[in-house]
Amino acid sequence: MSKRRALITGITGQDGSYLADFLLEQGYEVIGMVRRTSTINFARIHHIQDKITLVSGDLLDQGSILAILQEYKPQEIYNLAAQSFVPASWKQPVFTGEVTALGVTRMLEGIRTVNPEIRFYQASSSEMFGKVQEVPQKESTPFYPRSPYGVAKVYGHWITVNYRESYDLFACSGILFNHESPRRGLEFVTRKITYNVAKIKLGLSQQLALGNLDSKRDWGFAGDYVRAMWLMLQQDSPDDYVVGTGETHSVEELCETAFSYLGLDWHDYVIQDPRFMRPAEVDLLVSDPGKARRVLGWEPDVSFTELIQMMVDADLATLKKEHNL
Ligand code: NAP
Ligand code: F7E
Predict the structure, then answer these.
(1) The model's pTM
(2) 20, 66, 137, 196: which has the fewest C-beta neighbours closer than 10 Å?
(3) Domains in the chain, number
């Protein structure tokens, strides 16, 4: 039997790289869509580059999407590409809407015209719950986004539902809560903290400037979450699922966990800087992942403390290597 073929948009990102690892392990042929950049940014997929096929395309460019679907004929598409950094969405709201919202429609239009049998996963977000209307948040919790990013993801979610209902597409929306890893971008708060804790421990830095320490998030490990994406596309019928750990922690607790792991007291190093405050904050996110557990049989393997320690360890190892320590 020939291998199943999956297309991943956003393969150079955190989730795309873990999903590519996972699908290769499942015996898939993996096609990754990458946008043109003046310098190559394949660090997260360097270790599998000879096992995957990279094709040039952009969520802003309908023609490139159509050409990829026609040429590579994937059976499954995982749409992970997005402008995904929340603060950047206030600085570039129109661009964020073009990529993170309308980009989803471009992909769905491609599927509808080229092959409506393709199974589609949309990377939706807990940021859609924003100013939460219910605690914990589940699939039926009303959305109240608090950033242009959150608003764009609400559009992406509903256009996915709409194409499923209008054209009978196998289209799923995974509403994923924050998930992190050693491959997380340095600007997100988990990685910013673990990287700087490692720098401080090695004497390479003395201080860490953060924004709001009170906000709470449901943080899990990205490697666990890509399994849930795949499971959604293996069901008999398409549906939407909340994916998270069901636990919440504040940014302050995150500091405590990361600094104390290396024997440091975070109060000695962390300062608050208004530059990292947001025009509107999402104060509390915590998932009810009951449906994913019941229907998909999905559960996370890595705990909050294990995740943060894994990230600190990875950052320490990288910095030691870089600085010959
Ligand atoms: P990420 O690390 O920021 O990766 C984003 C990816 O999208 C990168 O590969 C980026 O390519 C690509 N991309 C951006 N604009 C594009 C465009 N116009 N055309 C094609 N590709 C484009 O994000 P992530 O953390 O892996 O998240 C993956 C997806 O899940 C995103 O949609 C994010 O919004 C969503 N999500 C993430 C979380 C989370 O906690 N991580 C939670 C819920 C939902 P470059 O490398 O060229 O920049
Ligand atoms: O912020 C607070 C900040 O940027 C988490 C994206 O993957 O997850 C991510 O969005 C919290 C916020 O992630 C700093 O105010 C304090 O309350 O790590 P973050 P996010 O905004 O939750 C969701 C699910 C996505 O979908 C997104 O794509 O931490 N915080 N001080 C800070 N945050 C940052 N970045 N930097 C600080 O210095």
Answers:
(1) 0.99
(2) 66
(3) 2
